[in-house]
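Section 3.1: Structural characterization of target chains.
Under the original work plan, the team committed to producing a structural model for every single-chain target entering the pipeline before any wet-lab resources were allocated. The record below documents one such target. The sequence was received from the expression subgroup and is listed exactly as submitted; it comprises 147 residues.
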Amino acid sequence: MTELKIISSEDTFPVRHPVLRQGKPIESCFFDGDNSETTVHFGLFLKAKLVGVISVFKNKNSIFKAENQFQIRGMAILQEYQGKKYGKQLLLGCEMYVLGQKPDLIWFNAREIAVPFYENSGYKIVGEPFEINEIGTHYIMFKDMRH
């Protein structure tokens, strides 16, 4: 039985660190805007154990004309729980929250390895791949939430 809960930015670090920032200082788990009043962090709990996290920021990307934009960041599932549909649960829970904010679109920078996962959830690539230093190839992905 899983449960999705709102958590603090610091509560995301035990999942962000090993999955997204392995080998880097724990401070690298803090993202600009983490503590903004418009940012929400979700934790997915399995029998009270935190197994996945996702954060949603009210943040506009200038490549999109839409006004009410939300950015997903820090989506991560602990390695031993990957491939069990927990990521899909996290993403859907985040989307349900965002829908309550009357969004125009959701966007994010997806790691190359995660692109098929997001495509299966209806997200599309826009533009060319780009590198994030010491992390790897990324693609900007988005989903129009207006229909």
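The radius of gyration is 14 Å.
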